[in-house]
Amino acid sequence: MAAHPESAPWLVIIDPQHIFASPESEWGSPFFAEAFVNMRRLAAAAAGRVLITRWLPTGDRDTAWGDYFAAWPFADREASDPAFDLVPGARELSDHPTLDLPTFGKWGAELKEATGGAAVVLAGVSTDCCVISTALAGADAGARITVAQDACAGSNGENHAAAIHVMSLYPPQLAIADTAACVEVLRAA
Predict the structure, then answer these.
(1) What is the CA radius of gyration of the chain?
(2) Which of 54, 64, 145, 163 has a CA that sits 20 to 30 A from residue 43's CA?
(3) 182 near 155, Cβ under 8 Å?
(4) Tens digit of each residue's pLDDT, the chain (189 residues)
(5) From the DSSP assignment, how many helices (H) and strands (E) are in the chain?
């Protein structure tokens, strides 16, 4: 991944929340703990250029989000429910406020403004939902994005691999790398 010459790359950690990490959750990834170790390595290398996002169930129920919550009633809770809290250790990875959105994809004006339009390394959960939604929207917007594949956790191994494969079809906007390569990019900035 080549950093944009105007600014150092940022690490964006997508949705490290209990609802996606807990084995008791219907949405819990069995790979979250392993991926979180790599998210922490990336955050240490990013030297303060870390943004963490959270998905909140605040979508308008008069839209297709209403159908979504009918399909997943366990997630239809108040946004203040502890299920939507960050996992232990996540808050310490960033000095910046979390970017809280009611959408799968987190790419948009808020994320672009927070990162100053710099290149982005993406990590988080789930690879096959919120990570891919963020990555593809960012690619479409012309952002320079590298997905740290081993710092992402999918809903299962097959879905993780499929999402990584799809994202690998979008060079040069999207690149796929491992944590070690992304650490070097973040440290070199």
Answers:
(1) 15
(2) 163
(3) no
(4) 444 345 899 999 999 999 999 999 999 999 999 999 999 999 999 989 999 999 999 999 999 999 999 999 999 999 999 999 999 999 999 999 999 999 999 999 999 999 999 999 999 999 999 999 999 999 999 999 999 999 999 999 999 999 999 999 999 999 999 999 999 989 876
(5) 7, 6
Look up the domain containing 71 and give its range.
Answer: 10-188
Please, how many CA atoms are within 13 Å of residue 57, restricted to the half-sphere of its CB? 21
Q: Which two tokens stand for residue 183?
A: 């650490």
SS3 assignment, position 71 = helix
- The Cβ-side half-sphere exposure at 101, using a 13 Å CA radius, reads 17
Domain assignment present for residue 2? The answer is no
Number of domains in the chain: 1
Q: Is residue 5 part of a domain?
A: no
